Amino acid sequence: MSRLFGSVRARATLGATLVVALALVAAGAAVLLALRDNLTEQADGRAASAARDVAAQLVAGRPFEDLDLPDEEDSPVQVVDEQGRLVAASDDLERISGTGTGAVEPVGAGAENKGDNEDDRAEAAEPGEAPDRGEIDEDTEPSSGSATVDGESADYRFAAVEVSTEDRGDFTVYAGGSLADEQSAVSTALTSMLIGFPLLLAVVSGVTWLVTRRALRPVAAITAEMSAITASEDLARRVPEPATHDEIARLARTTNETLTALETSVERQRRFVADASHELRSPIASLRTQLEVGAAHPELLDVDGAVEDTVRLQELAADLLLLARLDAGEKPGGGRVDLAAFVREELSQRTRDRVDVHADLKSVEVTGSRGQLARVLGNLLNNAQRHARSRVTVTTRSEGDRAVLEVSDDGSGVPESERERIFERFVRLDDARTRDEGGAGLGLAIARDVAVRHGGTLVVREAPSGGALFELRLPGPQSSAE
Fold it and tell me: Does domain 331-481 sit in CATH 3.40.50.11890?
């Protein structure tokens, strides 16, 4: 059961069915209440009409025994005087409740009113006359009750109408309106709902199940393809993208974009490992050869060469470790660095530069890791020293909210078509250059990675002297804080 309702399709079907069920129950209850109220009002109207008809006869002076009462089953009637005595009632009335009295047999009219009644009958019999011997109250008081007429019991709505006559006193006329139609209609509607609602819910559930299955079919295809990719470890595969513009299509596109990024990252890591192994093999093999020769022939040991290979191996290992930390998402520090003072300090520690370095430094602060920024500056200076003819220039300045550090040389420059490629790892444009002179091709890649992680950029352009100009732009302290 838990596995079944763990399905999105099952939950969607259940949710839709519950919502429709609640809506149907609410709508059904509202319909039944409205139907009952409407039919009850109709019964009240019939009862009030019957009561006023009898009241009009009383006002006209008609005797109690001659009252024209409505059909007993449709509208049982009672006429009660001001003492609460039943003076007139429908024939065959056996029981009644919900009115002023439960009596069903009228009492005598009283001898003192006999002569008046005869006069009333005479006056009522005259054609064209409508004697007005009293007043009918405009207000009608409804009530609910029941009555048994000729052995048949039923529920009624009773209307009570007050009548005042001049010669016979005050009376209350009670007339009933049958609720049989209301009960039959409500019962029929309820039966229809009890039969129709489950069928409608079954249709809603089936349609929802089919629609969600069709809608989620691409998800099943995506899931199957992702499982196959996981099993085969083939990141070149892609999940199918439905030809729609809905959320599932966006999910498929996002999944493929993620797979592309993952494939690129894995391929980059593979190339990195292969290139790193290749670069490490050369100094290690050279160092081993020199040590083996020195062990066999101490007089032939090239100590300087061994030291150079060791230093080169150490620098390469440091570069690889830094790249690994950067790839792992190492964040730069939050310390403030004055670029002008920082560049002067770094230049003062360089003693083996091939050409002179000229500095045009203006004080500007940045936020970041001093050690990583020192690596960037060192790599840029090393690159410029390898390619410069006679001069390397370092400048610092501010432009808006950015700090700018430029390193330029007067060498041959970088071809425009290669200006992005030089920032790739293990790339050396001069294939004829020896490894000792050209390095491993990691310096500029490290410099750009550090710049990006500091929220900045590193690009190369043509210097005024015709060589290469590397421009590092970093956000100032306020921009970094924002």
Answer: no
